[in-house]
Amino acid sequence: MIKEKPSKLTLEKMYNEGLIQSEIGRIFGLSQSDISVLMKQYGIITKGNIFWSSEEEKILRQHYLKSSKGCLTPLLPYRGWGAIKNKALKMGLCRDAETYRHSREVVERLRILSQSKKIKINKNEKSALSYVLGVMDGDGYTDRKNTIGLETKFKQFAEKFSSNVKTLGMRPNMGIRKRENKHFMVWASSREFVEWYLELNFQKKLSWLVEIGDLAWRYVEGRYDSDGYLHPCGSQLICIHNSLQREFVANLLSKLGLKVSIQATNGVWVSRKSALDFATYVHSVYPYKNLEADSKI
User: What is the CATH number of the domain that holds 164?
Assistant: First the structure.
């Protein structure tokens, strides 16, 4: 991104409209600290540095949860929307699931639960465990401490992942990221699961999946929900950029009886002859076209 220095008028207007310094910085290719320095040079007073009066806090407490942005900002004329949201969060006022996720209450509750190992996972639910493992190797993530999660633009995928996480005994939360394109987020906490997941190398993972037999298809389902694509010719593709991951998935699919090929840049292709078998066992959130009819052509 080409860096561009905004004028005082532009900067003041964007800030007063509720954009925070980091958001303004991204627009112009600058860092938050660059914007902060520039605002000081221009003499623009940041509203976050002005102490909140008891009257302002009272207004926020009474109206934040039930009033729209358009109704609330006139009641706090000296505060930008970003400053209002940050102050509300510090006061424990949360308008939506995304904000609630970052609140001190949730962070502290998850930390205590994880450290005390109260969140146990049911490893006997091998179907759900296999699916969650597939998603984690695909679009899922972990902070390598206690949290796992998924962010996707497909609500059905988020709900499916959340349902399987819940089956394992975790307590998933779901929210919506409203910036830019709307994304659905799922997150949960279990130190036991994260430790188990991080200990799995390719060989251990393959051995476990082969051991559970047909339930290993659920791992493939999680990978396909994360990174799957149906080519117009009828073949399925699991997009994987990491070469070791490509080899691992191709090996697993071969052990499940499918004919596959590895594409150096794309991922793992399922052959035309195996496409119907793949669709029979992998019940993706994304619809297949009529592969059975196509196979007779």
Answer: 3.10.28.10
